[in-house]
């Protein structure tokens, strides 16, 4: 008698991000389903899978395909980061719940979800050409505050997709930009996502400039003094609150331990060159910080902040400030000296392809101006 192994029906619980999918599908089906072919293909492959290794490789390939399709789409003129975000969540949902053609444990499904996250965010796609003499890394963020507006876009994410692989000539040298997309989740930061991304880059000295970008205020802000502590009362995309506030700032974590470092660090961007760029928006060199003893003020130097306790860095008290702090701190720990810093873009409401296109063009010029100083 032949015994047939049953197809596993184990599944993981959907998280808060994935639970927004029905509303998003109802509200903007053309956005959520723009890359439906990728997810349909994944479901079929899950059903037909026979072993863990081949399935993991397939998932990685599909995730990278999603990233590359989104990059190609934006660079062809569909100025929208949202299809990538929502398609990634559909892939995650499939990996968590879809029937698989072999017995699969929950921990194995978690591995598949992690593979989707890495491959669909460009982490596996950082490839500089041998002829590129100036190598620039740019990070963008997912859309966020989606319970306020399910259709919210993030111009930093659009920028990452628009500039991935972009090459240009400056002072007789070829420059190239490679990009990745960062999740708006405290846990990923606490688990070292930024350090995992940048440690091999700093160790090998493999890039010449790093820009972290997020959506911010009215104009462009170059955030001079990132602070160590979190203080924003706003939730992340999983609706997690840190428990921090302006009255009670808290240090983030790194792999289970409090992140150690000075209360403030200073960026190394070539500010004067960047500020010469003309566009729709001002480019501010933002010195504003908040400390427990002095409240909010414009700091003139790191020395002035030496004995202070950070409440907000120039980039605020949320993850946009934190990505900048972690990037600069890690550079210092590796004794590197390259231009690293954060750009806050103008804020947009919902999705506006023309405004976001204009933002991308000004950032492109700002990065070009910075590259001209190398």
From TrEMBL:
The keyword Lipid metabolism does not apply. Pfam families: Peptidase_C15. One of its GO terms (molecular function) is cysteine-type peptidase activity. The keyword Hydrolase applies. Keywords: Hydrolase, Protease, Thiol protease. It comes from the Bacteria. One of its GO terms (biological process) is proteolysis. InterPro entries: Peptidase_C15-like, Peptidase_C15-like_sf. Belongs to the peptidase C15 family. This is Pyroglutamyl peptidase I. It comes from Shewanella aestuarii. The lineage of its organism: Bacteria, Pseudomonadati, Pseudomonadota, Gammaproteobacteria, Alteromonadales.
